[in-house]
Design goal:
- It is a single chain.
- The protein contains 13 helices and 2 strands, in the order αααβαβααααααααα.
- By secondary structure, the chain is mainly alpha-helical.
- It folds into 2 domains: about 1-180, no CATH class; about 180-255, no CATH class.
- α9 (about 180-190) packs across α12.
Length: about 260
């Protein structure tokens, strides 16, 4: 996510095309995720250690590359797109129908991914690889290819989310601007019980809590109190998911975090 943010901003600033920056961020995010895939899938190393190492690499790499972009504004930011008629709906209209293209894509992407996972053969293969890779392999599913493709796709989305921060949410480069949002994404997966459809609601719930701090600040409520709530939920969710009995109850994939060794 953080490398996607610096890539999206740098390419957008250099080319003057924000969409080129977004595409570049997705490509870089996908390439970085392949490092994690190689270590955890092919080399069968500990996925948590690999992920933490990649996180440190991304933070250092983005800080190094982003030095040239500090203090430079991005004038060609991602434009807002207002949907006529729908934006005039009281309360909900301005909240839902006055955003940029990536927000609208998020509205569609979550139910689309839910449909793919639970209503298509591709989704059956993906879930079977997560639940019982040995059985999936016996049925002719290439477990390693599925895991590589899914990891790469997740990396592309992580790069996209980072680019959104630097070209739309706050069109500038600030070192460490993701501020731990990637960890919230991990906790959100557990919080919504591995469902893309529920993830849409959970993500905007977490985002609403973050935005709500600015509303309560004039009332004397410390913004730091609300700012820490998403991270507190993150810790609770990660601790809960670390227990095997709880993982089974909340519907975590049976082979989650377990390297597959073909017999």
């Amino acid at each position: 996510m953080i490398v996607g943010a610096v890539t999206g901003f740098g390419v957008s600033l250099t080319t003057g095309n924000v969409y080129a920056g977004i595409i570049a961020a997705m490509i870089v995010g996908g390439l970085l995720s392949l490092i994690h895939a190689f270590i955890s899938i092919s080399m069968r190393a500990n996925q948590v250690v690999s992920g933490l190492a990649l996180t440190m690499l991304g933070l250092g790499l983005s800080g190094l590359v982003g030095r040239a972009y500090i203090g430079k504004p991005l004038y060609d930011r991602l434009p807002q797109m207002t949907i006529p008629l729908l934006v005039d709906i009281p309360i909900l209209g301005p909240s839902l129908f006055k955003h940029d293209l990536l927000v609208y894509i998020s509205f569609l992407l979550a139910p689309a991914l839910w449909f793919v996972l639970f209503k298509t053969r591709i989704g059956i293969n993906i879930r079977s690889v997560g639940e019982n890779p040995s059985a999936a392999d016996a049925l002719g599913v290439n477990v390693y290819a599925v895991r590589y493709l899914c990891t790469c796709f997740g990396g592309c989305l992580a790069g996209l989310s980072g680019a959104y921060l630097s070209v739309a949410y706050a069109p500038a480069w600030i070192e460490g601007m993701t501020a731990g949002r990637g960890w919230i994404a991990v906790a959100l997966t557990i919080f919504v019980l591995w469902s893309p459809a529920r993830a849409l609601l959970g993500a905007y719930l977490f985002g609403g809590v973050e935005a709500f701090q600015f509303r309560l600040q004039p009332l004397g409520v410390s913004p730091n109190l609300l700012a820490m709530l998403p991270y507190a939920f993150t810790l609770i969710a990660l601790v809960a998911a670390s227990r095997e009995t709880i993982r089974k109850k909340i519907g975590a994939p049976s082979a989650l975090g377990t390297p597959y060794v073909r017999e």
